[in-house]
Design brief:
This protein is α/β, with parallel strands linked by helices. It is built from 17 helices and seven strands. It has helices spanning 13-20, 31-42, 47-51, 53-62, 82-102, 118-130, 154-163, 176-183, 190-197, 202-216, 219-222, 241-247, 250-253, 259-266, 277-287, 306-311, 317-332, and strands at 4-10, 67-72, 107-109, 137-140, 167-170, 228-230, 267-269. The strands form two sheets. A four-stranded parallel sheet has the order 4-5-6-7. A three-stranded parallel sheet has the order 1-2-3.
Amino acid sequence: MRIITLEEHYTDRRLMEANNSLSIERPPMSPEQQEVMDFLRKRAFPGEQLLDFDKRIAFMDEQKIDMQVLSLTSTVNDGASTEDAKKICRMANDITREHMDEYPGRFGGFATLHLMDPKEAADELRRCVEELGFSGAMLAGRQRGRFYNEAEFLPIFEAAAELGVPVYFHPAFVPREVQETYYLSDAYSYVVGSELSSAGYGWHSEVGIQIARLILSGIFDRFPDLHFISGHWGETIPAFLERMDAILDQDITHLERSFSDYYKEQVYITPSGIMSNDQLEYLVKVMGADHMMYALDYPYVEVGDSYAFLTEANISDEAKELIAHGNAERLMGL
């Protein structure tokens, strides 16, 4: 069975140096923030694996992965100028293409876009798809506190729809005010609150809200050929589709279809390395295998035997083929 995985991160020393060279004043870390950094180092934060493509290929061969779609693990430091952000993102996309050329057939690419000028970002997406052969774009978190349903970001989604490529929404750290209000507490350590606000729960909830806001803004009525991808089993949204239809019905949304119709037709979900048989079986029932794809979140998640997880799952052989490669081939031209 051919395996294609979609949420697979990397970085490059040239990009790290370019980011570090920017003249941005950064406030010193608080003792609590330093405690979080020390905690992450103890967890063996996968720095070298992000850089080392020999290790990446060895991992892919061991896991029987035929192709990864590469995405940059981070883009541009906050505070960068529009021109610097544009330069670094273009550089990142060219480097992604270098890796695709170095290992023919093993890698695809998601475009890295700077969003301070959405029209320029749309042009860069067009370059990535038409000239570099990429299969979509990945957007992370919010853009300087703004969700993507704001009208200024429409050129990016218009370009994706015209090009016939999806947009993958990835988590990012929640804003400081959100972290303080919802996640930090004197009842537990700062490390616990920090982890709760990020990979433990917070950033997943925020990505789910990101997609919900876009659907409710009418994005899919405006661009009926547009598709999104959502990792981590849909970032909590699939479990609430019936509830959202009941509360956010068409009488108040004034959309052409129900919320769940848009979600099930135009959003694809991936596991992002959460290897849960219960969630896999449940979401095949909710979404249908024709709107699910595979992703391991390399190198951030230790996945065990990801090939066996999918090939031995209690779902039909047809569903396995769709999730493993069929949907990615159809949606992304891989």
